Amino acid sequence: MNNFFAEVSEYFQIDAAMMYYYAGIAIKIVIIFTLAKLAIVVLNRVIINIFKLYPRFKIDDKKSSTLVGILKSVLKYVVYIIMGISILETLNIPTQSILATAGLGGLAIGFGAQSLVRDVFTGFLILFEDQYGVGDYVTINGVTGTVEDLGLRITRIRSYNGELHIIPNGEIKAVTNASRGNSLAIIDISVAYESDQEKALGVLTEIALAYYENNKDKAAEKPEVLGIIRLGESEVIIRTIIKTQPLMHWNVERELRKLILDAFKKEKIEIPYPRRVMVQNK
C-alpha cells in the first residue's frame, strides 16, 4: 500500500504526506456514510419488530403501520443530519460556527422553507387527529385510492388503476375516509312494466334477507327493499340497500346482483332491454 501511494504521489508530483492525509479523510467519509446507511437499516428493523407487538400497546394494524412510517421518516432525517455534521468535522470545517450563524440566517431560511414547515406540521396534525392511516381508502384533493404511506412531508396514495399519487401534506384541505364506519351497498334493479311488481318486490326481499343470514361477515345490518324509486322509459327501477362492513359494499353489490338475476330468471320476472316500435305507413 505504501508503494502504491508513493508511486501515485510521484506520478502526480504530490507530497506523499499530503496523499496519506487526503486518503485518510476519504476513508473516514466512506466509513461515516456506510455506518449511517447501516444504522438506518438496523433501526428501521428495530422499529418494525417493536410494532409487531402492537396488541400489547392496544394499537390497531393500520395505526401501527402509520406510526412505523412516521418514525422511519424522522429517523432518516436525524441520521442524515448527524452524518452531515460528522463529515464536516472530518473535513475540519467548524460546525459550531455554522450552527451559530444558522440562528442569524434562520429568518431567511424560514421564509424559503415555509412550505416544508407547513407540510411537516400538517403531517403531525393528520397523525395526532387520526384523520387517516396506512391502508385506509380515502379521497384527497380529488384523488381516490388506498393510503400506501403517510410521512412527515408527503402522503402516497395508490389509485384503483395502480397510479401512485404523491401529495404534500400541506396541500391537504379536506379528507373523505371510506374506511371508518360501515359502508352502504346500493342495488338498483330494473323490472319491465309488464312484470308483476309486487312479486318482484317479494323476491328481492327474500333474496336480500337470505344473503344477510348467510353472509354476516360482510353484511353489518339487515337489508331494506326501499321499493320503486324511478319510472324509466321501459322499466321500473327498484332499490335495495344494505349496510356492510367497511369497503365490502362493492363485493356485496356484485354478489346480490348475480343472485337476483338467477332468481328473476327462475320466477319469470322480466328484466327489460331497449325496444323500438316501427310504424310503417302504407
Structure notes:
By secondary structure, the protein is α+β, with helices and mostly antiparallel strands. It has 3 domains: 2-112, Helix Hairpins; 125-177, SH3 type barrels; 183-266, Alpha-Beta Plaits, CATH 3.30.70. It is 54% helix and 19% strand. It contains 8 helices and 8 strands. It has helices spanning 2-12, 16-51, 54-57, 61-90, 95-112, 114-129, 197-214, 249-266, and strands at 137-140, 143-150, 154-158, 164-168, 175-177, 183-192, 224-231, 235-244. The strands form 2 sheets. The protein has a 5-stranded antiparallel sheet. Strands 6-8-7 form a 3-stranded antiparallel sheet. A hairpin with a 5-residue loop joins β3 and β4 (164-168). The radius of gyration is 32 Å and the shape is elongated. The termini are far apart.
Which fold does the CATH topology of the largest domain refer to? Helix Hairpins
Shape field: elongated
- The number of distinct structural domains comes to 3
Helix/strand/pairing class, anyone? alpha+beta
At the first level of CATH, the class of the largest domain is: Mainly Alpha
Distance, first to last CA: 109 Å
**Rg computed from alpha carbons, rounded to a whole number of angstroms:** 32 Å
Count helical runs: 8
Q: Give average pLDDT, whole number.
A: 78
User: How many beta-strand segments?
Assistant: 8
- Secondary structure: helix percent: 40-55%
Q: What's the story with the biggest beta sheet?
A: 5 strands, antiparallel
